């Protein structure tokens, strides 16, 4: 045996007495971190350990120093620009932006859905582009990138202070359980900044990375188009509310108490989602103030100066959905 080569069991405290080789053994992790070059010039694997034939002191690369000493090779110090505020943090190389925001910074500005970049619930904007924060590594974002979350959108209190996209999703009912809503809003903001007047195909493509498990897509598309009009300075009327928004801000709702009545469909709808296009058609009619319901019932609120119960029933029948 070569004199510089020591048997794997020689330095084992539980083994036979013999010369120690503690200075020659390195773990697989140490060997890989040092890329092998700093740990040994040659080696063989014996019993699951790397035994060096010509050893030098193992080296560990560091990226920064702190008051407490150097950082491990698996950590990085980064400066994250989130919603206009700089955050100096030390992150693991494998740590996602969502983990950093929630666990280190205490920011609850995005929801975690699948944690696999498949649902879009955690979407934020990085330099204006919608990305999934659950799989974006924080260690790669300390280079001056601008990170935006839904918390940066509102500019004041009340409806008037909301971003047009936030307001549209709220008043057009573009949500249900709310888990996906922040991601949809951020993807919509990115779209409307790039395309002020998107086609249906462009909206579909822009939101293709976001999934709504409640199936509120019809109202979401309506909200996107409403927000686009608002951002272009046009007058808009919201699907789920009588509130009218002018270019200068939010106007007061018409002072109409209205009459409300729940009707039962003569033939129940197949699913709750089938109600969306019916609501959209009914609320467009002059005199209708609001609509809600389920696959079995529909509640209509109307202006008594323009409509009565008979006219509402006739309207629903005309649309192909007579009620009892």
List keywords for this structure.
16 strands; three-stranded antiparallel beta sheet; single chain; alpha+beta
Structural description of this entry:
This protein has 324 residues and is α+β, with helices and mostly antiparallel strands. 25% of the residues lie in helices and 20% in strands. The chain contains nine helices and 16 strands. The protein has helices at 28-33, 97-104, 158-161, 164-171, 181-194, 200-206, 217-231, 275-283, 309-318; strands spanning 25-26, 43-46, 49-52, 65-66, 69-70, 75-82, 85-92, 123-126, 129-132, 146-148, 236-237, 244-246, 249-250, 259-264, 288-293, 297-302. Strands 7-6-10-8-9 form a five-stranded mixed beta sheet, covered by helices on one side. A three-stranded antiparallel beta sheet has the order 1-3-2. It has a three-stranded antiparallel beta sheet with strand order 11-12-13. A hairpin with a 2-residue loop joins β8 and β9 (129-132). α4 (164-171) packs antiparallel against α7. The radius of gyration is 31 Å and the shape is elongated. Mean pLDDT is 80; it is low at 1-24, 31-67 and 251-256.
